[in-house]
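Consider the tokenized backbone below.
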């Protein structure tokens, strides 16, 4: 089989490998689609801090079961599955409490172990989720980023009518916005990129404003009926944005940081304290997040294909993916098809 190996920044090569053996407890899956995450683009550029070369990237992956390992129940050859990429240790305190996404020794397919950009992937059955409806493979691969939004929204304990600001209108920001809406929340997106604001409005009917606009404060006041937000979800990973989130929440509001900021964050300690906010940081997602997303996908609340703007054939991906990292490529969400 062929595997696409990221050798170093912006440098891919195809490597011929034997098809992995399907061990007891595993599924061998023939890959059909891999969506490219923002963290993948950082890895390609060489600035993903959790990543090491060489590596087969791809953690947003879907395919069909090619072989069922000994002892595995509930799966059959030919069924469509999506990858749940977290590999928890199962023994640390977080794992024992059910917080497997925050495992002290967490690994991920496509980051710490080779991921989906190869023709076959063998992984434990617990890392695969069977879909209960036939669908294009790229839609199934898109379920993983939707679970990131589900995990963030779940932290907020939202109620109908709650007002939520999501900063950053990229794929994860829109995922967070759509998931917040499933609780009946009213959602406003902010992004400095006019193309992303237009994309959010046209494809998802989401209200998206420019936070640098001189009228932004007035616009948010109109949205919140001269109040502040009940919650803010920051997906920008930008220090300046994250440090200002508390200003947009009302008393007792909630903040979720989804993006990873590598530097030091500073807050106005007194004014932050006086609001008695709740601050959460999210990492990856869990099986209940997948189950929730699958349910709303089944109901038609999520249409994953709306995210995808670009696609590449696996045989051409070695050249295409490096080009997708450049802003002028205009890629909102790309997918590699096998």
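A designed sequence for it:
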């Amino acid at each position: 089989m062929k595997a696409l190996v990221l050798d170093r920044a912006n440098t891919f090569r195809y490597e011929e490998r034997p098809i992995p053996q399907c061990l007891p407890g595993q599924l061998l899956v023939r890959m059909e689609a891999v969506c490219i995450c923002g963290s993948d683009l950082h890895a390609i550029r060489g600035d993903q801090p959790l990543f090491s070369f060489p590596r087969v990237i791809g953690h947003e992956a879907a395919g069909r079961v090619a072989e069922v390992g000994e002892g595995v129940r509930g799966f059959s050859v030919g069924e469509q599955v999506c990858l749940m990429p977290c590999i928890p240790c199962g023994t640390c305190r977080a794992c024992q409490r059910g917080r497997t996404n925050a495992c002290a020794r967490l690994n991920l397919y496509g980051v710490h172990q080779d991921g989906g950009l190869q023709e076959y992937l063998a992984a434990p059955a617990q890392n695969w989720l069977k879909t209960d409806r036939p669908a294009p493979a790229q839609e199934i691969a898109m379920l993983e980023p939707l679970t990131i939004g589900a995990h963030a929204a779940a932290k907020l304990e939202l109620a109908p009518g709650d007002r939520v600001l999501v900063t950053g209108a990229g794929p994860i920001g829109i995922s967070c916005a759509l998931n917040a809406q499933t609780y009946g929340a009213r959602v406003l997106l902010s992004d400095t990129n006019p193309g992303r604001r237009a994309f959010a409005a046209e494809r998802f009917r989401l209200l998206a404003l420019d936070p640098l606009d001189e009228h932004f404060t007035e616009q948010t006041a109109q949205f919140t009926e001269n109040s502040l937000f009940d919650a803010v979800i920051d997906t920008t990973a930008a220090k300046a944005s994250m440090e200002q989130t508390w200003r947009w929440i009302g008393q007792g509001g909630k903040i979720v940081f989804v993006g990873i900021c590598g530097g030091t964050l500073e807050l106005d300690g007194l004014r932050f304290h006086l609001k008695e906010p709740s601050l959460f940081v999210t990492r990856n997602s869990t099986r209940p997040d997948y189950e929730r997303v699958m349910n709303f996908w089944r109901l038609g609340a999520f249409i994953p294909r709306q995210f995808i703007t670009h696609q590449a054939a696996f045989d051409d991906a070695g050249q295409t993916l490096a080009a997708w990292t450049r802003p002028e490529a205009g890629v909102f969400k790309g997918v590699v098809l096998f």
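The chain has eleven helices and 17 strands.
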